[in-house]
Write a structure and sequence with these properties.
Shape: globular
Number of domains: 1
Oligomer: single chain
Distance between the termini: 13 Å
Order of helices and strands: HHH
Radius of gyration: 15 Å
Largest sheet: none
Strand content: under 5%
Helix content: over 70%
Length: 90
């Protein structure tokens, strides 16, 4: 279904790619560097949120707000990936 490995990165990191587009406009990156930047950002989000949740120094309300933001971001990722699949098959 995917022609190149970079399409897989964009599939799983499409929303992050939209957030990185201003950086891409200022600093021209190769396709591979752009994919690596997407992967690095998602790893940092995963590691950072895991460390933050296990620290225990934050209130339950703040933790619920972060969970809501992460869930909303995942929903945007899934929606954009779905639209990419539809667009590729049209």
């Amino acid at each position: 279904m995917f022609d190149k490995i970079s399409e897989v990165v964009l599939f799983f990191g499409g929303f992050t790619a939209l957030l990185l587009l201003p950086v891409y406009a200022i600093v021209p990156l190769s396709e591979m560097e752009f994919g690596i930047a997407i992967i690095v950002i998602w790893l940092l989000v995963w590691i950072g949120s895991a460390l933050w949740f296990t620290s225990g120094s934050h209130t339950r309300r703040a933790q619920m707000a972060v969970l809501a933001v992460l869930s909303g971001t995942s929903l945007c990722q899934s929606s954009l990936a779905f639209l990419m699949i539809i667009g590729k098959n049209v």
